[in-house]
Amino acid sequence: MKSGARKPRRPLWTLALLLLAAPGCEDLPVVPNVPPVASFIYSPVSPINAGQSPVVFNGTASRDSDGTVATYIWNFGDGSAEERGSNPTVSHVFPVVGQCIDVTYTALLTVVDDDGGQGSASQTVKVTNLCR
Ligand SMILES: [Ca+2]
């Protein structure tokens, strides 16, 4: 009967742990996630020539007061695919869409924090299509 009597030990031990842990779990306050704040700069600001000038967008100034910024999502407003990643800096060349015209795009940065919260910031970017 010794081996038979040992078997219930593990379930009882587990139950005791659950009883000890349960009150603490109920007392934990629900802390809402504070969403991150997006911020970026880009360089050069002018001149930016379509099809030629690599523009460096830098979102390093983005912050999350209660966590970290996990993902940077860039939309350059020119029809190109969004770029997303954990690196706060990207380089982008705006497409040629004509001749002798300036086009103003709205570049949008969305940052996602480690809890899935989001924040966005946008800036206009003036791009020159050269005369050929
Ligand atoms: Ca947060």
**Rg over alpha carbons:** 26 Å
CATH topology group of the domain at 41-129? Immunoglobulin-like
N→C terminal distance: 97 Å
CATH superfamily of the domain at 41-129: Immunoglobulins
Small-molecule binders: calcium ion
Oligomer: single chain
The general outline is elongated
From the 3D coordinates, which CATH architecture of the domain at 41-129 would you assign? Sandwich
Major sheet attributes: 4 strands, antiparallel
Mean pLDDT across every amino acid position = 88
Strand order of the largest sheet: 4-3-6-7
- Model regions low in confidence, pLDDT < 50 over at least 5 residues: 1-5
Content of β-strand: 25-35%
Counted by DSSP, the helix tally is 2
As a percent range, the share of helical residues equals: 10-25%
Listing every helix as H and every strand as E from the N terminus to the C terminus, the arrangement reads HHEEEEEEE
Q: In CATH's first tier, which class of the domain at 41-129 applies?
A: Mainly Beta
Structural class: alpha+beta
The strand count comes to 7
Explain the overall architecture:
- By secondary structure, the protein is an alpha+beta fold.
- It has a domain at 41-129: Immunoglobulin-like, CATH 2.60.40.
- It contains 2 helices and 7 strands, in the order ααβββββββ.
- The strands form 2 sheets. Strands 4-3-6-7 form a 4-stranded antiparallel β-sheet, with no helix packed on it.
- Strand 3 and strand 4 form a beta hairpin.
- The chain starts with a helix and ends with a strand.
- Mean pLDDT is 88; it is low at 1-5.
- The site of calcium ion has 9 residues, from loops.
- Residues 33-34, 36, 64, 66-67, 113, 115, 117 line the site of calcium ion.
